[in-house]
Design goal:
cytoplasm; binds zinc ion; zinc; 401 residues; ligase activity; 20 strands; five-stranded mixed beta sheet; alpha+beta
Length: 401
């Protein structure tokens, strides 16, 4: 595996500038195109599974983080507050408090639950400058996040659903988890909440892993300050281990924010909060995906899906047709055929249009793995690429027979 920092620059996926600052990379058009596709996929996957998406601001008042417990337990990872008039505003280090207050913004009934609030949101963490590099560790983070509010009796079912969605999305992305980890409390760290709630949540997470026959390691000291969690671990090209997905049970923040719903008997009841991310931050995810695929992404989120190489004097409508059909296309007029093919080795399909093809409305597709297909009508080539993209099977370049 090659370090994603080198490949990311070579393939024009992302870069950084000392004037913007360490740990603040920017996404170039090719990287942004791939990320947009992955974000859209996650959005649809969540929507089809009953999640409701929101937008919330990346800033909040200091008092909110006092109530949530972040300032008491997590201040070292947060940027210092900014004085604005009477208030002190802080860049958020997580979306939990905003989503808790979105839950609280309306009267909630047991019939509304589970309420699955989701957001691909921006957050900020003050990582030390010595550990910053590429996309793995950054200070500006776009997280695939959700908070599920439900009665404690529904929490096991919600965790099971999250584990299933993790496995589905990791398979589509071509991401290989190294291990599952049950992250528990440990000595020398600060935690909020009641002991009985911690024990119940730990038992619930164990039960969810066992029910899906997922093997896991128990790791002390890796819990969140508000509750235990299941973490999905991956290993990068340098052999470092990262958490890419997580599901956590939290009794603490619902209590701190005094969240409630009206239960079936008409009484006020306290929901539990299930924090979860299917694929982590877009930064860390793409750092891993670039290395995992060596920059040759699966067809569905490849920045360019088909590179068109016109060789004929006749103009061919293929590139415009492919673009209109929703494919991501680049056109290369300069250089020998060989040089143009070598410049596009990471692109899943190269469409060669010679004199004969142009005259007959055909294209010759060359696949990234070296296979060459017989010349086919442009519309058939577009249909083939679209079908492979829609199937989201990493490694596959032809439709399933
Ligand atoms: Zn959270």
């Amino acid at each position: 595996m090659i370090d994603h920092r080198r490949l990311g620059r070579e393939l024009d996926l992302f870069d950084s500038d000392p004037l913007i600052g360490a740990g603040l990379p920017f996404w170039l058009p090719a990287g942004a195109a791939a990320r947009h596709e992955v974000e859209s996929y996650l959005y649809d996957l969540e929507r089809r599974n009953g999640y409701q998406h929101v937008y919330s601001p990346a800033l909040g008042k200091r008092q909110m983080y006092e109530i949530s417990g972040h300032l008491a337990n997590f201040a070292d990872d947060m940027f210092p507050p900014m004085a604005v008039g009477e208030d002190e505003l802080m860049l958020r280090p997580s979306m939990c408090p905003h989503h808790a207050l979105i839950f609280k913004a309306r009267q909630r009934s047991y019939r509304d639950l589970p309420l699955r609030v989701a957001e691909l949101g921006q957050m900020y963490r003050q990582e030390r400058s010595g550990v910053l590099g590429g996309l793995s560790r950054v200070r500006s983070i776009a997280l695939n996040d959700s908070h599920i509010f439900c009665p404690v009796e529904q929490a096991a079912g919600e965790v099971a659903g999250v584990l299933r969605l993790m496995r589905e999305s990791h398979a589509a992305l071509g991401l290989r988890p190294a291990s599952y980890q049950l992250s528990l409390r440990g000595p020398g760290k600060k935690y909020g909440g009641r002991d009985a709630d911690w024990l119940r949540s730990e038992a619930l997470l164990r039960g969810a892993l066992d029910a899906q026959e997922i093997s896991y390691d128990e790791v002390a000291g890796e819990a969140a300050f508000y509750g235990p969690k299941i973490d999905v671990q991956v290993v990068d090209a340098a052999g470092r281990e990262w958490t890419i997905a997580t599901v956590q049970i939290d009794h603490h923040q619902p209590e701190r924010f005094d969240l409630s719903y009206v239960d079936a008997s008409g009484a006020k009841a306290r929901p539990v909060m299930v924090h979860r991310s299917l694929a982590g931050s877009m930064e860390r995810l793409f750092g891993l995906l670039i290395e995992e695929h060596g920059g040759a992404f699966p067809v569905w989120y490849a920045p360019v899906q088909v590179a068109v190489l016109p060789l004929a004097s006749l103009p061919a409508p293929f590139a415009a047709d492919a673009l209109a059909a929703g494919l991501r296309v680049s056109v290369h007029h300069e250089g020998s055929l060989g040089a143009r093919i070598r410049a596009n080795t990471k692109v899943p399909y190269v469409a060669v249009i010679g004199e004969r093809e142009a005259a007959a409305g055909l294209v010759s597709l060359r696949l990234r793995d070296g296979r060459r297909l017989e010349p086919m009508p442009g519309a058939a080539a577009i249909a083939l690429i679209s079908e492979v993209a829609a199937a989201r099977r990493p490694g596959q370049l032809l439709p399933s027979p």
